[in-house]
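Hi, here's the filled form for the chain we discussed.

Project: internal
Contact: R.S.
Residues: 308
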Amino acid sequence: MSFILDDGMGKPQPQQGAGGDAVKETTAATFMADVIEQSQTVPVIVDFWAPWCGPCKTLGPTLEKLVRQSGGRVKMVKINVDEEQQLAAQFRIQSIPTVYAFKDGRPADGFQGALPESQLKQFIDRLVGGGANVIDDAIAQAKEALDAGQAEQAAAIYEEVLGEDPANPVALAGIMRCYMAMGEADAAREVLGQLPADILAHPEVQGVKTALELASEAGKYADEIAELEARVQAAPADLDARFELANALYAANKRTEAVDQLLEIFKRDRTWNEEMARKQLVKFFEAFGPTDPATIHGRKKLSLLMFA
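And the returned structure, exactly as it came back:
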């Protein structure tokens, strides 16, 4: 599934991915059109496989993912050797998985067995002349736009990615972060609620889930920063007030300041409220992401305090 940005009511709506024809099954009857003719315009990877083949279950999905991430610069055709024995015999397939790449109507490269993803990327790069993974490039551009505060522009790029690779967890997480940045947290929750378990388990998506949970918890403190700062200044040892201030700062997107308040609690009493400061820091780091400056700052200081 992927999501358009707006249905006129500010909510995400299911949409079919545009990259659905990047991978297809073929038969002896359609092989000429699907492979020989198609390879005249774009390289075609042919995967000989069978449902009972263990390595095929590893190779196939990874190869399909990379083909979809190529942004249309390479296609993939799958051939079930049990059902297409004539084709298997024609290509002298003796073990599976076996992969051939076709360019200009003829075989150009190939391999046998399940290769790691890094080698599969190199295989595709050779076919297209390098730089096959335009999806990764687009995601990097979207993240840069979002970090610069251009949430609508970032969302448009993420939507382009999801049109080619509808189950891309990084893009799904990115578009949810865009909704949150645009003040549409409910839209982000709606997207989150539609995701299957395997995508929900991805660290990027988990980070968004945590961010949404924190937003719900911290939102009630958003308008109390000045009052809470006064309470903390008057009574620095009031750790409850300091914890509420950290949440208020988080709700105001003052990330480093929020982290520093939790670090101060940890410094004063690391076991306070069943280590609540450390646990909240871990949630903040997950919500921010590992490369966020506030996460890097906070992890470094927390490590120093833990081993002091």
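Let me know if anything looks off before we file it.
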